[in-house]
Amino acid sequence: MRNCRFKITPITLPIILFGGTIIIGTLLLHSQAALAGASISWLDALFTATSATCVTGLTTLDTGSTFSLFGQSVILLLIQLGGIGIMTYAALIYFLIRQKIALNDRFVTGQGLQHNHNLPFSKLLKKIIVWTVIIEVIGAGALHFAAPHDFTFFAALFHSVSAFCNAGFSLYSDSLSHWHADWGVNLVIMALIICGGLGFSVMVELNDCLGAALQRWCRRCFRTSSDPAPAASHFGLSWYSKIILSTTIILILVGGAGISFFEYLAARPDTGRAVTILAGIFQSVTCRTAGFNTLDLTLMTNVSLYLMLILMFIGGGSGSCAGGLKVGTFRVLIAFLIAQVKGRSQAVIGHFAVERKIMHEALVLLFFSTIIIFSGAFLLNITEGGLVPHPQSRDLELKILFETVSAFGTVGLSLGLTTKLTAIGKIIIAVLMFTGRLGPIILITAVQSYQKKELFKWPEEHLLIG
Questions:
Q1: Is CB count within 10 Å lower at the N or C end of the chain?
Q2: Whole-angstrom Cα distance, residue 57 to residue 379?
Q3: Collapsing DSSP states into helix, strand and coil, what is residue 35?
Q4: Can you tell me the distance from the alpha carbon of 129 to that of 209, in angstroms, rounded to the nearest whole number?
Q5: Are 311 and 186 in contact (CB under 8 A)?
Q6: Angle formed by the axes of helices 183-198 and 239-265, to 10°?
Q7: Which H/E stretch holds residue 100?
Q8: What is the C-alpha radius of gyration for the chain, rounded to an integer number of angstroms?
Q9: How far apart are CA 46 and CA 52, in angstroms?
Q10: Longest Cα pair distance anywhere in the chain, in angstroms?
């Protein structure tokens, strides 16, 4: 009988946990206590719960006016649970119930969170929780200080958690457009988004590195002439963290410069250049799956929107609050293309070559992500009025593609299509958000776990391509 008992593994646990959280969130958000006025449909409650748990930010209802304080608190809790990450979520449940994890399962659970397995996973998990709380509290205080009349304690905490978790939920109907020229609010939100999108392992490593540098500085400042010289510390950022940080900075600067340039060319005479640059940088940061906006996206140029599509598709770091293809995957694919052009057999980044297995996984992730996005866009063209002659559809195709990439990348930005979605369209977007938050790799791994490994090789044959 013991052998017949069903065992939940770390591969299936995140799917069950996220699905269960969404169901509970739907029930709570549909209750009258969560609403500020009239009732909402079950589908809208499900859509909101899915968007919050998957830290996407797409909404069919106005969060600030539709939901009561209790409802907004439920959304805040769903964002926090979804933001700490899928593998963190699964591992935390295992540790809370004190269930033993097999060695291979422990590796599967931890590989989505840490690149350096020398650090005990339990210690990493504690650091993730502690630093998440610390950063969110500091962010809430900074927002309240930057705009005390607009950001009350709850509003500041809500937007701080939403920004760090890259959720993009706002209590204001125009998101953060009211503060498009406020450097204080913009810098706080951008800092929170970047911290949440780097990845928990990179964040912990940065903390250790800064802590070691601070200790060395304190020792030098307060060391007396009789004290021995402090020993040299060799602690520094790992190869992985340097790649994530450098690629993130390049994407933000290139994206911000591009958006600022094209929007400046099309800007109204009463819009200052400094404000345009700030808004461009902010949109470049928030495209990394955060979902806030300080500009009216429907008034932006098509060139800027396509640039934002690329940034949304890339997303943030692995094991972070962000979604998308991920920064590490993007960097591996760039290295692979460079290797093909140079005729190298290895994809080289810095002083190291990427493992061939990782390169294959990056290509598989790119392929499946592209298939999922175009499949979602194809279905939305059927359900959202795309079955008309092309001249009559006008910009509908761009809106649908933007909505699809935003949902799959768990971004939350929209060109106004979300509130106009049909019932089937809402279900398609909800499925895209759920799939994007879990990630194709987890879904593929879950399917592969039921497959038997072939113990033979097929004969190979030449096939013309290109």
A1: C
A2: 21
A3: strand
A4: 19
A5: no
A6: 140
A7: none
A8: 23
A9: 10
A10: 85
Q: Which residues, listed in sequence order, are joined to residue 348 by a DSSP beta bridge?
A: 353
Per-residue model confidence (pLDDT) at position 296 = 87
What is the rounded distance in angstroms from the CA atom of residue 107 to the CA atom of residue 129? 20
Q: Is the pLDDT of residue 34 over 70?
A: yes
Q: Which residue has the higher pLDDT, 242 or 236?
A: 242
CA distance 373 to 431: 11
Q: Is the pLDDT of residue 6 over 80?
A: no
The per-residue pLDDT of the chain, averaged, comes to 83
Q: How far is CA 377 from CA 27, 161, 328, 402, in A?
A: 29, 30, 25, 9
The predicted model scores a pTM of 0.86
Residue type present at position 359 = M
Q: What is the DSSP string of 273-293?
A: HHHHHHHHHHHHHHTTTT---
The closest alpha carbon to 323, from 446, 197, 208, belongs to 197
Cα gap 298→168, rounded to integer Å: 17
273, 257 contact by CB (below 8 A): no
- Provide the residue type at 287 as one letter: C
Name the token pair of 145: 């200080």
Looking at 316-450, list the stretches that DSSP marks H as alpha helix, in order from N- to C-terminal side. Answer: 327-342, 356-383, 390-393, 396-408, 423-438, 440-448
The rounded distance, in Å, linking the Cα atoms of 429 and 404 is 7
- Among 71, 66, 76, 79, residue whose Cα is nearest residue 173: 66
- Token pair for residue 204? 């912990």
One-letter amino acid for residue 171 of the chain: L
Within 13 Å of residue 138, how many CA atoms lie on the same side as its CB?
A: 11
- Helix (H) / strand (E) element for 65: namely helix 63-66
Tokens 């304190």 sit at which residue?
A: 218
- Dist CA 449 CA 466 (whole Å): 34
- Report how far apart, in Å, the C-alpha atoms of 227 and of each of 214, 220, 230, 231, 326 are: 18, 10, 9, 12, 48
- 450 DSSP assignment: T
Please give the structure tokens belonging to residue 330.
Answer: 């993007």
Task: Inform me whether the pLDDT recorded for 282 exceeds 60.
Answer: yes
